[in-house]
Amino acid sequence: MTPRIPPISLAKADDKAKEQLERVSQFRGNDVTVLNVFGTLGQHPELLRRWLVFANHVLSGSTLPGRIRELAILRVGWLCGSPYEWGQHIIIAGKEGITDVEIHEIAIGPDAPGWAPNEAAVLRAADELHFISTISDQTWGTLADSYSQQQCMDLVFAIGQYHLVSFALNAFGVERDDGVDDSSLPFPKSAS
């Protein structure tokens, strides 16, 4: 994938962009890492600043358990054919206890064997929102039996947020970051 909007480095960013990028950079001694998603959005500092408020809620401030959030995000990344999103969240999902076998089952979808009913419902909610822009009564009922009202709301917004992010990543041509290896990922090569 060739970037349509190249990521800006911290060194080349203007003051406004630099302020935002420093908030999301990873500092290790003299090494600074700016993920390509942030470097790309750094080309529009006000958009980055405002988007980060919501993105931070979805990723680290929502009521959803991390495992459930990552199941939804990975399913969205798969459905949207977003290799960047898929690759980044494989890493995060592993930290939330999602196994390599489950990663492959996310690609298959909610009808893959082995999902608990509440987890299958999370994947199905991502599918339904993707394909029909709502969640069926049956899927909602399963979600409501397992998750609080706020968690169901956070789930819908997480699915929507990662659709938006996947659309942007794909449209802008954001390349995977260094170290995100796709050799073992069940992602179609035609989509990357």
Question: How would you summarize this macromolecular structure in one to three sentences?
Answer:
The chain is mainly alpha-helical. It has helices spanning 15-24, 36-41, 45-61, 66-79, 83-95, 100-108, 117-132, 137-146, 149-172; strands spanning 26-28, 31-33. It has two domains: 15-58, no CATH class; 63-191, AhpD-like (Up-down Bundle), CATH 1.20.1290.10.
Topology:
Layout: H1 15-24, E1 26-28, E2 31-33, H2 36-41, H3 45-61, H4 66-79, H5 83-95, H6 100-108, H7 117-132, H8 137-146, H9 149-172
Antiparallel strand pairs: 1-2
Helix pairs in contact: 1-3, 3-9, 4-5, 4-7, 4-9, 7-8, 7-9
Q: In one word, what is the shape?
A: globular
Gap between N and C termini, in Å? 7 Å
Give Rg in angstroms.
Answer: 17 Å
Q: List the uncertain runs.
A: none
Rounded average pLDDT? 91
Find the CATH superfamily of the largest domain. AhpD-like
Number of strands: 2
Helix proportion: 55-70%
The number of helical runs is: 9
CATH architecture of the largest domain: Up-down Bundle
- CATH class identity of the largest domain: Mainly Alpha
Strand arrangement in the largest pleated sheet: 1-2
User: What's the domain count?
Assistant: 2
Largest sheet: 2 strands, antiparallel
- Structural class category: mainly alpha
The CATH topology name of the largest domain reads AhpD-like
> What is the ordering of alpha helices and beta strands?
HEEHHHHHHHH
